[in-house]
Amino acid sequence: MSDTYNLSQLEDIDLAAGEYALGSLDAEQKAQFEALLAVSHDTQVKVAAWQELLQQGLHDFKPMPTPKELWPRIAEQLGHQSTWHHWINNLKLWQGLSASALALSLVLTVTIIAPPWNSSTSLRESTSNLVSVPNTSPDLNYVMYNTNNDPAWIVNASMTQQQVSIDTIAPDSMEEGKVCELWLIVDLGEPISLGVLPKQGRMKVAFNSRITSLPNWQQLVQQGKLVISVEGSEGASSGYNMGPVIAEGPWVSAMTGPTIGI
Amino acid sequence: MAQIAHHHEPSLKHLYQLTNANLFALALRILKQRDLAEDCLQLAFVKVWHNSKQFDAAKAKPITWLNAIVRNQALDLLRKNKHQKMHDSSDETLGQLADQGASQEQQVSQSQEQQASHRCLATLKENQRQCLQLAYFEGLAHPQVAAQLNLPLGSVKTWIRRGLLGLRECLTHII
Questions:
Q1: pTM of the prediction?
Q2: Is A202 on the interface with B (CB under 8 A)?
């Protein structure tokens, strides 16, 4: 058995996920694995599967009834917090701080993951502000940065789920009536819209049949290029009529990660 | 979970009623002290209330997600309270807790799946089982497990990996 986990190998990711769910990784190993976990849907699913397995295998105890007064204590605390949360949710400052904290964590995530892939060359394409690394994995990512060089959106494509998840971090504010639209270009065909990028929250988009009906579609997607254009509020009428392109680049493999010394 | 995400309190109460005995047992297994386990469950359900939008049914079952929240909360409390010498892992304490549970939980039966799982734990070698339990229930990483068992670090790493694989193989065949 090797003393390290190579996070570019599926088998090692699987076992590292098991150790992560178990809690046996030390702080450094845990941070490295979490860098992968933050951007890889497939790895998140693996961890959840291990969590379930460990619960089935290690929970060797019988259910224990709780005291009757416990639920009223919980309900009372929720009641107090509801008032507090109502007030605090009205503060735009709070939302700004949350976005900043999340952006910071994702900057760290990308920073931690990036060096082993491409340490000799710049990760960011000078014109498009993208992380750009060749890959051959089934779980892909794409980070678009805002003008402050913080992540604006993180796009994750899961080939096993056949869907794309887009997490909004800190996009630049757009001119009134304008939106950013994400496109996938495969095999030099008409760009395929993956939708208008959200202003907040997470958006999930299934790969449409135009993509999945292509022979070797997963490979084509991996080799494809992502483009972000600025459009009117309705989005572009077709891939051939997209507006000005503000960013473009290839996917980043979520699995071409670092080696964890175990 | 969707209703809880919209802050529908009766749904949270229903979830609590369905799961509290199992989750309390988990908290008690880690903390080994009833008042701390109660605090743990209270904190965990408040987290569920505020974070239920993060639950993703495509990734995990609700009970898996709940167990993870309670376990993480219990391990946090365990670390915070270690200096108070509360963590008495003697067989006597565990025995007392088990007895209390057995007398009170007549209405709660364990599933066949759970019993089968326990057989899987028993199939592991003693050192593998011990390493897995120390990591899972006490939140110990490889070096701490090695120190606690006074064993070489490399052996602990190997046993943990083999234990994980063995557990999965057994459960895959049983469930």
A1: 0.60
A2: no
